[in-house]
């Protein structure tokens, strides 16, 4: 077992009955167990909370907690409640459709044994796309390139991120509420960490799976989502061309990935006939 800090995993969730079980199960079934797994339900109207409660009964040994954030609708207040409630020295934050690789907690503990690291992120495997391992290598290469282009500014991505509880407490009063829901909340976190001198690192060993369901959006909605980068920078008064690299990358690869996903779905439909 890797000696290292205690790790909490926070999972905000809204109407995620189709994904929450796989997400939580992957968080439980780690080579090194997390010290705490917190699902924060945000006014779900489906079976999300019931599924988590059933998993608490199925896995009584797991440190699985279910909290409710009913005060308002939104990812940011739901994320904040979970991070505030977590007791770990390192706070992992993933999405409700994230499926962690089995050694994720082990890798996070290893990364944070370095006291200079305040936050970390890593690559994704798109588990509902074809050629998943090839996609993982491509995603890793793209994210590394984005980090190199950004130079001293480093991103943490909400589907696969962790930060020290001490860093969270320092930036907590400053993170943006984004009432208009126009920004990338994880880029907002990255900006506030960077502004206060916290070191964020990218590590290829910190791997998580996520759905490519964003590609099912129509082009207008997808590009509006990508433009959240621009709106996040504008809200912070940042005008730096190199920080637009992720926006350019995700815009450029959309037609290719959309085509791959469409072709895979067509093949799947033919198999089912």
Key terms:
273 residues, alpha/beta, Spore Coat Polysaccharide Biosynthesis Protein SpsA, Chain A, seven-stranded mixed beta sheet, three-stranded mixed beta sheet, Glycosyl transferase, transferase activity, transferase, Nucleotide-diphossugar_trans
Give a verbal description of the structure.
This protein is an alpha/beta fold. It has a single domain, classed as Spore Coat Polysaccharide Biosynthesis Protein SpsA, Chain A, CATH 3.90.550. 44% of the residues lie in helices and 15% in strands. The protein has a 7-stranded mixed beta sheet, with helices on both faces. The protein has a 3-stranded mixed beta sheet with strand order 5-10-7. The longest helix is centred in the last third of the chain and has 28 residues. It is globular. The model has no long low-confidence stretch (mean pLDDT 93).
Number of helices: 10
Placed side by side, the strands forming the largest sheet appear as 3-2-1-4-8-6-9
Total beta strand runs? 10
The biggest beta sheet reads:
7 strands, mixed
Give the overall pLDDT as a whole number: 93
- How many individual domains? 1
Radius of gyration: 18 Å
Strand-pairing-aware structural class: alpha/beta
Strand fraction equals: 5-15%
Which CATH-level-2 architecture?
A: Alpha-Beta Complex
Task: Enumerate the spans where pLDDT stays under 50 for 5 or more consecutive residues.
Answer: none
- Element-by-element helix/strand order: EHEHEHEEHEEHEHHEEHHH
Head-to-tail CA distance between termini: 48 Å
The CATH homology group name: Spore Coat Polysaccharide Biosynthesis Protein SpsA, Chain A
CATH topology: Spore Coat Polysaccharide Biosynthesis Protein SpsA, Chain A
What is the level 1 CATH name? Answer: Alpha Beta
Domain Glycosyltransferase 2-like: 8-170
Organism: Microbacterium album
GO molecular function: transferase activity
Pfam family, one: Glycos_transf_2
